[in-house]
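for the writeup, i need someone to sanity check this before i put it in the appendix. the sequnce is what the collaborator sent (i think, or maybe the updated version? ugh). structure was predicted straight from it, no edits. if anything looks off just tell me and ill rerun, i have time this weekend
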Amino acid sequence: MSTLRIKLSIFLNYFVFAILLNSVGTVILLVQTSFNVSKSQVAVLEPFKDMSIAIVSFLVTSFITRIGYKKAMLIALGFITIVCFAMPFSGSLLMVELLFASIGSSFALIKMSVYGSIGLITNNEKDHISFMNFVESFFGVGIVVSYFIFPLFIDKNDAASTSWLRVYFLLGGISLLAFILLFISPLDESASKSNQPAENLLNDFGKMFRLFISPLVLIFIFCAFFYVLLEQSIMSWLPTFNNDVLKLNQVLSIQMASILAGSIAVGRFVAGILLKKFNWLAVLIVCLLCAGSLVIFAMPAIKEFLSNYKGSGITRLADVPLIAYIFPLIGLVLAPIYPAINSVILSSLPKPKHGLMAGLIIVFSALGGSTGSLITGNIFQAYGGQTAMYFSLIPIGILIICLFIFSRIQKKSTAAPVTFSSAAGH
């Protein structure tokens, strides 16, 4: 089976949803002025997105292979195309909340299907972990693009304008293109089907829970939860941090946040090469230590800048302080962690279980994202943006511990695959 067309389709699917999902930080900033709401109120946008991801993943993950990966992705793309075209005709916080619930629901199907499909179009563990990083790096490209698409539709003369909602006409067109490309792309899904006869829904959920209680899967879930908590606590609030703390205007705040997304994309592309040559645990531990060091360096530097800054707001790129460029580079070292641990866990399981595992990944990643955004939003409002960013040191420390445990259990599992398969209900 030629895999070029389906690989291109996977890249485009992820590109579309990268723009939609990670626009939440931009929208958090815009909604505060367009609809006159507080930081704690707008912090619920992340849970609307993430909890819909978690709920749909939980309900669908046990029988995603019965639906079919390709069919599930077509359903998601078709639905979100319709929602995007309808969005510019709305104008309230409630409609934005429903938008992110729709995006989350659709992405649940996309991510489960993409993660399941990667196992069908790669040949071994190294190919899997490399392609996973390339896919996630393209996701990062979509995030970068989102930070430049939205400012094109912002009314620079009226901060309260809702003109930015027209961006969804463009996003609807891109998702329609993704639908068409996927529709004409062949995907052989026979390897994802279990040889056992079809079972009822209750038994399917039973398989998912038996997989969940495996020690390897359980410690992986802790890793995924705290990584996404860490990433979203920074990514979702960086535009607001730039606006409130660094005194950049709205457009600059959004555009400067693209540095984080761009550094994540570059980091994952480079990781796709490095992880073919070096042990994944060593790479990830070094990355986390560098991330913690950057937070410890950047926050005092920002405090020093603020103590010397006397202006009312930065409106020109030439006036943006150097530290605004440095802190988002944390994305370079955070980038390899998520795709690497996802690839390790998927490569440790038989292909018929990849759909189930993808569902668990999505559920707990969504819970982590919601938790991170809510905690950061409330810390931001109560104690300020710098304290909110210092919060990221806690999940960094927890992740380092969890990764060592994950690696140890993964090695034992690889050495005794029969025992693990039994525990996973295979």
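The chain has one domain: 4-188+201-423. Residues 354-383 form the longest helix (30 residues).
thx in advance!!
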